[in-house]
Amino acid sequence: MPRIADLRIWIRLTAAIWFMLFIAWNSLIFWQSHVNRQTAIEQARQFASTMHETTLAGLTGMMLTGTIGQRDVFLDQIKQLSIIRDLRVLRGDPVIKLFGAGKGGEGNPDPVEREVLSTGKPFVEVETDATGESLRVVQPAIAAKNYLGKDCTSCHAVPEGTVLGVVNMKISLVQVNQAVSTQRFHSIIAASLVSIPLLAFIFLFIRNVVVRPLEEMGKGLSSIASGEGDLTHRLPVHGKDEIGQAAESFNKMMDKFSALVRHVGLSADRVTKAARLLSENALSVAAGSQQQDEKSAAVVAAVEQMTSSITSIATST
Q1: Which residues pair with 138 in a beta bridge?
Q2: What's the predicted TM-score (pTM) here?
Q3: In a 3-state reduction of DSSP, which class is residue 2?
């Protein structure tokens, strides 16, 4: 398996850019999905508030018209809405004291309902069960002088601000999650389709701006390395970017190297001429020495001849 450093530059650059785009796009897609989900949950909470007011308005109207006995039919009709998973209306202590606990366990609140009844603060939370996610909203019904056009304090004989009961509602988030998942899937498909021409453009850009100038530089260096000492070869300079600056610096180095080689050549020529002159002088000295030897031999012969003549004369004498 080749190392990353052994791969071509355009492969590494394209892969790195694609990887960063992949991370950026997926982060953006999942962030957008999160925002859409939170928006949907907020819309579900607003819908729960609307249904809370609708439920209380319906119960108030039934109480005023004397048809409160049909409240179960009314509440069951609201439960038939596809988005509503559960609905319970519980009476608070002031209402129980006046009208009783009611039917269907309205006097048996769970811990969350009991907390809302005691504090008067609404409870909103996303819950998950066997049927999927849902938004549970438990909102109190608080006595007011003017609530939906009615005076709650006169009907229930309680001070303003008293918690009369709670409406416990679960809003299904299954469709919301499906819509968010579908939107996320479509966004991923769209990003993938967009990435194809984008990667092609990135490849062409890297090929023309980075890879091709580097290949020309490599060919020039190989030509100089494999040539026969041609120091006149220069790399092409196409611009003032990093590659152009590197080629220009290399050309300047070659100029200095050529000048150095020329200087060394001139010095070698001078040394050669000096050596040739020295050789000629040595030859001249050798010739002079030989001529002097020849003259010395002639003198020796003359001296020997003179000695022989003297000896002959001495003998004759």
Answers
A1: 123, 168
A2: 0.62
A3: coil
